Amino acid sequence: MTPLSNSYLTADELQEMEPLYPLHAYVCSECFLVQLDEFADPQEIFSDYAYFSSFSDSWLEHSRNYTQLMTSRFGLDASSLVVEIASNDGYLLQYFVEAGIPVLGVDPAANVAAAAEKKGIQTIVKFFSTETAKEMVDAGQLADLMLGNNVLAHVPDINDFVAGMAFALKRDGVITMEFPHLLQLMRNNQFDTIYHEHFSYLSLFSVEQIFAKHGLQIFDVDELATHGGSLRIYARRAGSEHVSENMIALRRKEADAGLGNLDTYAAFGEKVHETRRKLLEFLHAARCNGKRVAAYGAPAKGNTLLNFCGVRQDLIGFTVDRSPAKQDRFLPGTHIPVYAPEKILEAKPDYLLILPWNIKEEIMEKMYRIREWGGKFVVPIPAVEVLE
After folding, report:
1. CB contact set of 378 (below 8 Å; sequence gap of 6+)
2. Which of 66, 123, 234, 329 has the highest CB neighbour count under 10 A?
């Protein structure tokens, strides 16, 4: 039972009852799509969102590189339209704008959409669906390139979402979607990426079936390092492309890893419990030895980890985050306070637990000064490790 991972609290809310929801992942025995039950209304989760993509330098660089690659590969120019679903604060579309390519964002969170509008990015403030897609078609907003980074897993009705993409795509248009790869989640014990905002956990095997149902063919795939291991799929209308060697190789890799076998999923649970035991052992030992532990970051994955492990402020005094939307608030469930990064230099903790472990190199570079007082970095996933 955990709170919503992005429901950060104000000081006044600490005395109020906090809603908790079951967090349990299920796997379909036929298509092997891993999903959560829908307990929370997506409107409640996403309408006023605390995550601003632009506060990660490495993610901005990833987005800039993507823009250059797509522009070159698919010949995008001033006559094209690039549509991003879950466009957030314009972190990616800004680079297409700089290149003179027309763009359109779609995002349900009015607060982050306002930030995109300030960058000159027209944004539809709605959840993307077949209904939204029909409105886009009526307005003449068919996409040459339709993209979504880390959104496919966030939609409760994934079939309606994919059907909408097919509807709003030009006849020769291309769809790219990036999402964390279920194979890497299981192989690298990334259970903290399971939280209520992520309704689905995706393999190439399951996504191919969903896209095919709506007349779309995935013709290529890239394996990416982002978010602990992600896929970028490329899709067009069915029958228009031969599949790449990358597709054939990844299908084989998933089959060899047992993603078509229910026993593989059943074995994952024990790895998760072992990680909890090891993290608690480390934090209790640090406490008993008079060491002070702080955390870096307030990501949704960190809230899953800390709530599942039962960690509270007696074991981690505080965390810091670059996003002003999270500063001076408290983590959901654990009520650990969130400060600006300068707090680390003031408090001088002995250990800094990196909660967004997927960008640990970026964080270690920014917080290098902790070594001045003998401080050390710690990552919790795939296993607890102290980094010098």
Report:
1. 282, 293, 351, 352, 353, 354, 384, 385, 386, 387
2. 123
Which whole-number Å values give the CA distances from 64 to 57, 59, 278, 362, in the listed order? 11, 9, 38, 17
Give tens-digit pLDDT for 304-327: 999 999 999 999 999 999 999 899
236 DSSP β-pair partners: 217
Mean pLDDT of the chain: 92
Sign of CA dihedral 311, 316, 341, 326: positive
State CA 77 to chain mean position distance.
29
Q: Quick: pLDDT tens for 239-290.
A: 866 899 999 999 999 999 999 999 999 888 888 999 999 999 999 999 999 9
Contact criterion met (CB below 8 Å) for 116 and 52: no
Rg of the Cα atoms in the chain: 21
What pLDDT is attached to residue 41? 63
List the alpha helices (DSSP H) in the chain.
42-46, 57-74, 93-98, 110-118, 130-138, 158-167, 182-187, 204-213, 245-256, 262-266, 268-288, 300-309, 342-347, 360-366
3-state DSSP assignment of residue 181: strand
Q: Report which residue type is found at 101.
A: I
Q: What is the pLDDT of residue 109?
A: 86
Measure Cα distances from 385 to 282, 285, 348, 361, 366 in Å. 10, 14, 20, 14, 19
327: helix, coil or strand? coil
**Residue with structure tokens 């492309």?**
241
166 within 8 A of 228, measured Cβ to Cβ: no
| Beta strand pairing call for 230-237 and 293-296 | unpaired
258's torsion region: left (phi>0), alpha (psi -120 to 50) or beta?
Answer: left
CA distance 218 to 234: 6
Structure tokens at 113: 């959409």
78 backbone dihedrals φ, ψ, rounded to 5°? -65, -15
At 168, phi and psi to the nearest 5?
A: -95, 15
Query: How does pLDDT run across 170-189, given as a tens digit for each residue?
Result: 999 999 999 999 999 999 99
